[in-house]
Amino acid sequence: MADWARAQSPGAVEEILDRENKRMADSLASKVTRLKSDSDFTSMTGLLTGSVKRFSTMARSGRDNRKLLCGVAVGLIVAFFILSYLLSRART
Predict the structure, then answer these.
(1) Cβ distance 17 to 5 under 8 Å?
(2) Side-chain half-sphere of 17: how many Cα atoms within 13 Å?
(3) Average of pLDDT values for 50-68?
(4) pTM > 0.70: yes or no
(5) Which of 13, 14, 65, 81 has its CA 20 to 30 A from that of 55?
């Protein structure tokens, strides 16, 4: 039999209902957090997919774009190494 059916006083019933309400609110908060993280992942996947499509189109289009693409790739690699160096220096 349910806890609320065995309760002797109205105060005990309120306490049981309050406990159940808190449990359900925690469960709902957990589900909302999970849904938000799934939504963030989906939007990030869409952003990456669009970037890959633009990158592929630019790589296929012509010689001038290939030079630009190579320059951008080299620039990103250099920026990565500079940032990693600066972050490692900041930690020590």
Answers:
(1) no
(2) 8
(3) 76
(4) no
(5) 81
Which tokens in the block code for residue 8?
A: 């002797």
Query: With contact defined as beta carbons under 8 Å apart, do 16 and 7 qualify?
Result: yes
What was the pLDDT predicted at 4? 47
Distance (Å, whole) CA 48 – CA 42: 10
Q: Which residues does 4 contact at the CB level (< 8 Å), separation at least 6?
A: 13, 16, 17
Cα distances (Å, whole numbers) of residue 13 to 3, 18, 20, 64: 8, 8, 11, 76
9's CB contacts (< 8 A; 6+ apart) are none
- What's the full length of the chain, in residues? 92
Q: How far apart are CA 4 and CA 16, in angstroms?
A: 6
What one-letter code names the amino acid at 39? S
